[in-house]
């Protein structure tokens, strides 16, 4: 069985920590078994390893998330990158074609698809393995995993059962998208399941479907054709049109951590970052990525989240409405993770339509390096912590705490960290923020380099 993890979305419901570059699955707000902070994607990957599924998994994602995936999961994580961000059908089609034409998987191979960020118990992934058995023992086109509902939710779609199959599986009669509460109660009475976006199929089923639609089934050809694909969901394009679907119920814990209310319910601490909550505060939390302190006093059911992108104060029960208010914010992202570390905007200014100044704090992880290709901007770099090697004009020099240097316009240079390094860089030039918004990185100049041994 091969696993395809879907990693997409902008996660604006968790603004200001999530944005187009850092979706919700990358926020390190959960604790692992050792008490260290981890993100949703790190948690899921850890659980896949426990279930012996990680070695068979690939991640389908957009270009803006590749470096963050490598930073959090490791440089060797296999990814299939969309040429442009679309919905789940194009992303799954691209991953299937990659497995078929590049990795040469058999058409009989079972493919399991799931989101990259479910909050579940470990045996959820053991249940996913059962989907392969369901396909083996039936003539079904697809096998789904559905969650046994714990309340009549209006936020989830429902899988409505038909006849039962000997064993654990059921035939799927139909689907119902996000019903009102009264309808949801009726569906639960009919033993309907929450649709959690987990399904499986044989690779040949999707490849034949693509051929019928005249969609290329060779990876390079599909990359070229990708822009012509309609941005439809896999549910709409495939699942709802399949004639023979089975499902297996999962009765363990499952939660979609898509809002501040649901996310903070699963946090083991009420304060992350620099903050204090007074003893009279009830059911409230702070998530602070800034260096300034935050104090909560005399409030109830409040979430305060602060990052370089902005400051949020919301009542928990209203946190699902955030997305509609932040869609017009254009300055970010002010924080970004890369395979080599992270960067954070400290200050930005612009003089009319002319020169811009952008000050950033850079963290470069020990043993990693970055290249910066100058594009007409003058840059002043100052090492505030750690030690590394600078290569400028083919000359090597050691730079430690307190070192400050000016990089002339248009010069190429690179850093390699001998220890964890923190640097401040001040850039002056034009179109700095425009490049940042367009490319999802500081100014479009920092890219993953080829490793070299600087000594």
UniProtKB/TrEMBL annotation:
Instruction: Enumerate the GO terms in the molecular function aspect.
Output: mannose-1-phosphate guanylyltransferase (GTP) activity
Q: Which UniProt keywords apply?
A: Nucleotidyltransferase, Transferase
Per its record, how is this protein called by name?
Mannose-1-phosphate guanylyltransferase
Residue ranges constituting the Nucleotidyl transferase domain according to the UniProt record: 4-267
User: Please, which domain of life does this record's source organism belong to?
Assistant: Bacteria
Q: Name one GO biological process term.
A: GDP-mannose biosynthetic process
According to the record, the signal peptide region is: none
Ranked from the top, the taxonomy reads: Bacteria, Bacillati, Bacillota, Bacilli, Bacillales
Q: Name one Pfam family in it.
A: NTP_transferase
